[in-house]
TrEMBL record, chains A, B, C, D:
Domain 3-hydroxyisobutyrate dehydrogenase-like NAD-binding: residue ranges: 193-319
Protein name stated in the entry: 3-hydroxyisobutyrate dehydrogenase
Annotated organism of origin: Hirondellea gigas
Taxonomic lineage: Eukaryota, Metazoa, Ecdysozoa, Arthropoda, Crustacea
Main location: mitochondrion
Reactions listed under catalytic activity: 3-hydroxy-2-methylpropanoate + NAD(+) = 2-methyl-3-oxopropanoate + NADH + H(+)
Domain of life: Eukaryota
Amino acid sequence: MLQSSMMHTVRRLVGSAAAANFSSSAAVNSKVGFIGLGNMGGPMAQNLMKKGHSIIVYDISSSSVEELVGSGASSAESPRAVAAQVDLLISMLPNSANVMECYTGAEGVLKEVKPGTLLLDSSTIAPDVSKQVAKFAAEKGAVFMDCPVSGGVNASKDGTLTFMVGGPANEFVAANELLSCMGKNIVHCGDVGTGQAAKICNNMLLAISMIGTAETMNLGIRLGLDPKLLAGILNSSSGRCWSSDVYNPVPGVMEGVPSSNNYEGGFGSALMAKDLGLAQDAATNSMTPTPLGSLAHQLYRMMQTSGYSKKDFSSVFQFLQPDQK
Amino acid sequence: MLQSSMMHTVRRLVGSAAAANFSSSAAVNSKVGFIGLGNMGGPMAQNLMKKGHSIIVYDISSSSVEELVGSGASSAESPRAVAAQVDLLISMLPNSANVMECYTGAEGVLKEVKPGTLLLDSSTIAPDVSKQVAKFAAEKGAVFMDCPVSGGVNASKDGTLTFMVGGPANEFVAANELLSCMGKNIVHCGDVGTGQAAKICNNMLLAISMIGTAETMNLGIRLGLDPKLLAGILNSSSGRCWSSDVYNPVPGVMEGVPSSNNYEGGFGSALMAKDLGLAQDAATNSMTPTPLGSLAHQLYRMMQTSGYSKKDFSSVFQFLQPDQK
Amino acid sequence: MLQSSMMHTVRRLVGSAAAANFSSSAAVNSKVGFIGLGNMGGPMAQNLMKKGHSIIVYDISSSSVEELVGSGASSAESPRAVAAQVDLLISMLPNSANVMECYTGAEGVLKEVKPGTLLLDSSTIAPDVSKQVAKFAAEKGAVFMDCPVSGGVNASKDGTLTFMVGGPANEFVAANELLSCMGKNIVHCGDVGTGQAAKICNNMLLAISMIGTAETMNLGIRLGLDPKLLAGILNSSSGRCWSSDVYNPVPGVMEGVPSSNNYEGGFGSALMAKDLGLAQDAATNSMTPTPLGSLAHQLYRMMQTSGYSKKDFSSVFQFLQPDQK
Amino acid sequence: MLQSSMMHTVRRLVGSAAAANFSSSAAVNSKVGFIGLGNMGGPMAQNLMKKGHSIIVYDISSSSVEELVGSGASSAESPRAVAAQVDLLISMLPNSANVMECYTGAEGVLKEVKPGTLLLDSSTIAPDVSKQVAKFAAEKGAVFMDCPVSGGVNASKDGTLTFMVGGPANEFVAANELLSCMGKNIVHCGDVGTGQAAKICNNMLLAISMIGTAETMNLGIRLGLDPKLLAGILNSSSGRCWSSDVYNPVPGVMEGVPSSNNYEGGFGSALMAKDLGLAQDAATNSMTPTPLGSLAHQLYRMMQTSGYSKKDFSSVFQFLQPDQK
């Protein structure tokens, strides 16, 4: 056991050699697995290669795989086949069920994972699912850490993502080295599951603040206040929040934000609804009262049924606008 | 009309001479009326005197009046009697009904107000009531402006209040000079009523953010996150808001805030409930949907019925705490 | 005083003679005033005439007045002019401001009301406004009672309205006689304002139950239940409510209800939003927590901004439907 | 397959012979398994024996087992050991995790279930868990049906429970015969999971109506209405619901309900919170907006943190009472 633990530490240091800006034949030979090559995962995988890593990829979409192969990656037939060839593996998948299938399914990672492998899951999923997969991974001698990201597609492309990492402290160094190839801010949050917890906590407060800002701007405008003036007052007072001073939801108050671009780009309302659903699941399971978080979830759910799914989540301003129709 | 307008401009410039740091016999003779000498009004009146103004005061509490008289103020028998002697008058009262009575009652200011008098009401009340009193004042040739404050008792004492001012732009210079004796940030928000609008908009968003922060911190802690670490993550991310980074509601996360002093001091939950009620009245009257603002109001109302009235409004963290009992 | 009180009792008994199915010259000469001849007031006034009352009417719409005059009513130029000619007066107006103007305005009822006149206001307005008008009326020696109705336009035409009456018990007999010409269920609720209180309480619970039924039916259907089967289970169990067993919001579950007629007819969502606004005002003023009532208000407010204003209030089922778009 | 299906039909008809009021040696020999002997399960098992069934029981509490054994039951060491000896099995457990363990655990029912066995789970759990267990059971040739109950402890003792049954129609006859020994109303709701769906739908609407009734009664009382009068008005109007006309939450309005017994007995707030959590999970998973259901969940969650866990769920009236402190 100790033996295998030492072994994987060695392998991993070698594996991350390129990232540390020096090169060795070992580094060239060691590959990193990457499963899930969507809007977020694709650019992340590209960045790994740019930092000198060889990668072996899998995705259910063959065109996504081909794109990466065209950039120099190799590919495998299944998560299981990826796992068989690597000591380090990253996954970036849409939801809890996908992650469960990817790791524990018949063709899943854990069917052939090597002892000592470090598994980094960047999907945003339920903390309890992260914990469960970590438990199954531990039974195989592997280490599973949850590493959800914030920052969106552009940060994914630019390699400026924030990673919130849950898992054993003594593995964080290795995780940090690899994740630093794809992000600029890597935070160790605690035990496995706490990365997810941090992510959904932040997004719950974000959603609440955004809806609150939208309501407040709507109300102030109806009461005769100029939108820019009102934003200025809030931003220099106790109503200040990220949604009011960086990402104001009222068209024309700020430039370069989705509200001034017909709510295109940004973070879609359906994605916010998903994260709020995870927060509500976690709140229900832990019996934590979250009245505003719960109502925020409902409002984004209602936006989904009213045609706002793909609009940026700041479009709640429009959804709640008294004069919209 | 022009005559009277010129007259009051002259009188007012004279009245504020002391504030402008030069002295004249005219300035010494001209008095400023002050009605409402409570926790907020008392220190405001003291600051006016410190800046060189002679004041004539009224309050229903004779002990409050005596305190000011002891500091050099003169007093009058009624709002009406104050109005008879001044060109500039400030009021600071608990609620809409008090303001209505103070101005339009049988012994009210408007019974004997002189044409051209500038009436500055710093109470936090319904915007519609401000508008109505302004209309009645205009019928007497006086100018009523709403100037609610933010900043609390300490800012009142230190003369560092923020004033949000609603009323005609051409009167703002005079208002600004007088209010600057009691505050450091004087914002002209627009027509009469918009000062109140700005105040209740800010406080609505503040309440939403505070409850959201409390829920989020509670949830994160239940999911295994360290409170300080979680606060740090939020504060460097899109969940950031004044309630998380300046006034965190979790005991021990920050020093010098009410949460670290058993929720004593600060801004009481009952006062927040009152402001949220004003926001809801305004939202109902203007048919503006404010789902989170409305629920925030309900939660502070419930806190009032659960013994939290006098605790700082950040005690919603405790109110919602899963393990409190 | 006693004299005048006796006088009006006598006049009133005479005035209601026709309603009591016997005729006298006095009854023929005595007229009932009626102000507000809209969708509800028009048919009510017609029913008064059918029961043998002579009426004198006023409305801001001259066509509404003409219709009544065509049916045998006389008319007057203003509420004041109506009041000058009657001992009994009924009003049916859209909102609190209209009632305030109708009674206390420059051409209002109270300018010329005779001592002893009984004033019955069937408008649905804020209880506090009813109380205030009653106080002004009492200063003129008149008696004002709030008598809001339930039942809608059809019940108005059929003379089957329910009246919820607030005012002095010793005047209820006279009120009851007159109101019985227009309704079948006349309930004395207590002092002035309690008629309104009963009305808005009922409608608040109705709105909550209706939204609850809509959510529940939506959820059950999504979980695989047949709508009629689910309605049957609810209706024979503890989920039973008027909205589920008499007025089910799901198209096809029941016949003869708005949900099976494209949500046409019935009680419009905008009217429900108005009543819920009154409930919220009353709750705020009385510092009563009403979390679900408050959210119900917000939801009908949001429906107003989403094109549902004129659809029956059961269309909340459609508004919340997951698959609507 | 056909063979085994016929076999189990035969066995089952024999097994339920006693319930059908005729006796045979086969019936005497065939046993029914019963797992979970708590407040609900214990009396249900007793009723099965009273109707002539032999039962073999299991519970983690040995004292609960002993009580049943004292009444004539036999016992087994584990769910697995029960399953080995029966063709019909009933389970009544606290939550989803317990059911999952009971059926799929190392010592679970499915380890030794015989093909053709009918498994009836009366626990209130997530519909998705019922579906999942049913799928695992089908792999063993057994049939799993969800049969949650309504009616509480007294109905359990009296054998008057309502069972909401989800599962294949052709198995409902057999389920119905057995469940009829413990209840009086057995409803087939559809495929597996729909019994749970019906249960949580009903309880969600029940919670909404109850809170709505509590808010409405509180508001009406604050506005001057007599509680009994208000209840009467609601109950004869469109505000009518089970919570207002059968189980009114205001002390003194009705006799024989928990509100008139210090909210003792009845259905505890913590149990309601649990069912509302299941409803929210199902709503989240099916992306169904349920704003009031969601807030109702939060309110019962808050009641749990405020000391109301064991009080009847109608105590929400007290929780929301403006004057409680």
